[in-house]
Amino acid sequence: MNQQDGYADDIVKGFIIWSMVWGLVAVLVGVFISFQIAFPQLNFPPYLTYGRLRPIHTNAGIFGWGIGSFMAFFIYITQRLTRTSLWSPALAKAQLWLFNVVIALAAVTLAMGMNRSKEYAELEWPVASLVVVLWVIFAVNIVMTIVKRREEQMYISLWYILATLVGVAVLYLVNNASIPVSLTKSYSAYAGANDANVQWWYGHNAVAMVLTTPPLAIFYYFLPKATGVPIYSHRMGVVAFWSLIFMYLWTGAHHLLWAPVPDWVQTLAMGFSVMLIAPSWAAVFNGYFSMNGQWHQMRENYLVKFLIFGITFYGMQTLQGPSQSIRTFSAFIHFTDWVPGHVHMGTLGWVSLVLFAAIYYTVPRLYHTEVYSIPMANMHFWLVLTGQLIFSITMWIAGVQQAAMLNATNPDGSLHYSFIETMAELYPYWYMRAAGGVIYLAGLLLFLYNIYKTITSGKPQAAVQPA
Known about the structure:
This protein has helices spanning 9-38, 50-82, 89-111, 125-147, 156-175, 192-211, 213-227, 234-248, 263-275, 277-290, 297-300, 302-324, 327-333, 338-367, 374-407, 419-424, 427-457; strands at 178-180, 186-188. By secondary structure, it is mainly alpha-helical. The chain has a domain at 1-189: Cytochrome C Oxidase, Chain A (Up-down Bundle). Strands 1-2 form a two-stranded antiparallel sheet. α3 packs antiparallel against α4 (125-147), α5 (156-175) packs antiparallel against α6 (192-211) and α7 (213-227) crosses α14. It is globular. The relative contact order is 0.09.
């Protein structure tokens, strides 16, 4: 093993490389399906249709790019914050192989139409069972490393890591409970409104435990590393952590407003969703206040741009999300293009910007080189920022127009616009969304090339840099 202080860094390298591969797949598929919406003739049945490709896009993005990167950085961060080598490098190596097998199986089975039709839980039971095995291996290795740590103090990142390990396990097991009827088909163990309630308890908390707690763990670790100054308030981070974990678990039913679930369940979810603004913005302020006297680094340090814009998008997400949980606003924008605009600000803005920074920071230290091109990294930042903003803003505008047209009525109460008339007005926005995706893809390709050159031909470090 190529280790520093006995750390299992070769495994980290493997997860980073493969997460970038799956991230490229996710964005390529995402750009393609954005063109399919704008140009329906690009749907080629049966395998290359929007209905088959869309779950491949979400699974490759959230689980391939997201979870793959999180596994890399959980291993990297945990060893350094505990000052302890990974409990079992051999187990981690098996985890890397199984991770890629699971993601590949997910892509193949979804392309073949094997789909449970549950958001973020589409995988049929044989593949879903492998996910459970994968997560148990991962969780045991990280937890045992923390248990035998040599550093008594547990930094805030470790709290978020542990919450992720436990939260994902509970959510996935409960929502994926199913009754198999064949090797390729199963039915949910729940029915009707109960099934919907369990699904969105899982669905929204998958956002919490996959797209919130892991990037926060990474942000809290890499912002001080990148800036050279400590986090503003560790205590505020810990208080916000416990508040966030408690509140998030009650919010899932805000996806079911106006649905046939009890009103008190909807109201409870709505209330806790609004309260989530406080602990979420505590993390945002922690990041901003850490920059006191250091804002010049936004110009001088390319890593800081990724991290601070990332946490800013997180803050915007946690204002939009609670707003969408309010009944009147939800009735207006639900089932419109506003929602993918909101979601992609989180995935392309918050999560991916933080991961880009973490990879830029980590790879040179793992390979004992310098970043191949900082100007190229800056160009990558501006391209992905521009692409993401074009994507999100056009979808917000499209969503508002779409909602206004769908809700417009004549004096006699009949609908003023037909569904087809409404859809026809959205095409210009769909063209712009596809263009934004192409710009984001260009930035991603620049990033991948920069990392490739850093690994293969980057200048040797003048001195060993601390991890």
